[in-house]
Amino acid sequence: MAEVKRPTEVDLAKIDSLIAEYSKQRWGLIPLLQEIQELVGYIPSEVIPRIAKGLNLFPSQVQGVITFYAQLYTSPRGKNVVRVCRGTACHVRGGKTILKLVKQHLGIEEGETTPDLNYTLETVACIGVCALAPNIVINRDTHGHMNPKKLTRLFSSKDEA
Ligand code: FES
Asked: Which residues pair with 120 in a beta bridge?
């Protein structure tokens, strides 16, 4: 499991000034959360009570909004996000083996980030290119007709980059 990068004193001071800025806005919570995520790379759990206090909300309300929006994260993300398709077409064409190999290669489970913050691993229901199954997506690039050999080549080129 990756060691979580905590916000620095500088980050916390900046976060406090953002909270003060957004506390005057009626619908400030989501843009505030987005700005904090941009600043730190994720929304650290320790800032949730500060946000709640500043915006006159309960911490559970702030947490609820973070949980609701898939693009808000409470843990750091890797430089590269690997998504393995778990849809039916990919599953029947070996997607399960591909996921197992990706996990082995990266040494992490779904939803985790490598300790060097290079990779985050996620699964998706279907990425819409079933004809190329099994598929994985690395950042914005889709890699179809995946097989163990192709996967090894793909990761060795990424690891060298
Ligand atoms: S099931 Fe994998 S792309 Fe559709």
From this structure: 81, 113
The structure's pTM equals 0.73
pLDDT average, residue stretch 1-27: 83
H/E element, 145 = none
Residue 93 Cβ contacting ligand 1 at under 6 Å: no
Q: Which residue has the tokens 């064409």?
A: 93
CA of 143 to the centre of ligand 1 (A): 12
Indicate whether residue 154 lines ligand 1 (CB < 6 A).
Answer: no
Instruction: Please tell me the predicted confidence (pLDDT) of residue 160.
Output: 65
Q: What pairs with residue 84 in β-bridges?
A: 123, 136
Provide the β-strand partners of residue 80: 119
Which tokens is 150 given?
């192709």
48: nearest Cα among 67, 27, 63, 70: 63
Which residues, listed in sequence order, are joined to residue 82 by a DSSP beta bridge?
121, 138
| 101-118 b/e (C-beta count within 10 Å ≥ 16 → b) | bbbebbebeeebbbeebe
Task: Determine the Cα–Cα distance for residues 105 and 38; give it in Å rounded to an integer.
Answer: 29
First-residue to last-residue Cα distance in the chain: 23
